[in-house]
Amino acid sequence: MLWLIALLVIGMVLAPVMWIMPTPTQRRQTRLRDAARAAGLQVQVGPLPQTRRQRVRKEDTEFGVGYMLRLPRPKRARQAWIVWRQPGDDEAAPELSAAAQAALDTVLEAMPADVVAVEYTAIGLIAHWRERGSEEDVQHIGQLLTQLANAMGVNRDQES
Q1: Using an 8 Å Cβ cutoff, are 68 and 128 in contact?
Q2: What is the pLDDT of residues 25-70, one digit of tens each?
Q3: Interhelix angle for 98-110 vs 135-151, to 10°?
Q4: What is the pTM of this model?
Q5: Residue 160 to residue 156: CA distance in whole angstroms
Q6: Percent of the chain at pLDDT above 90?
Q7: What is the C-alpha to C-alpha distance for residues 81 and 117, in angstroms, rounded to an integer?
Q8: Whether the Cβ atoms of residue 114 and residue 134 lie closer than 8 Å to each other
């Protein structure tokens, strides 16, 4: 009987500690996000953007991560755009130069499979991702976003 009470007390002491320990999935996400920060990307956790079709159908919002490559503040306003990974999404295509469009097509093709969209905003380029990959995928996303920024003529070294 004394052993049973001792085990119960030990279990009650260890239960809260075990409850707050991160799961393997949470540890993997932490490693991915740390790798993104080391690659110079900002991490934004939140809902993934929805296509017009998803908004009209009022589909459930899926959560993911936006890995953003910050760009210098422009002298004039930039035209924001978002390009979906899956063909057939009915959003308007951005008006880009031929070189920038070719780079965008190459980047979209080379992105990891779970990247949903690439977005260009006033503050940077964002790869919206479901975060089902490895640290190498994070490095690859960072390189591809930098490649796209360079092809678009955005100089990250100095303010424009």
Answers
A1: no
A2: 889 999 999 999 998 999 999 988 888 777 788 888 888 899 999 9
A3: 170
A4: 0.78
A5: 9
A6: 22
A7: 10
A8: no
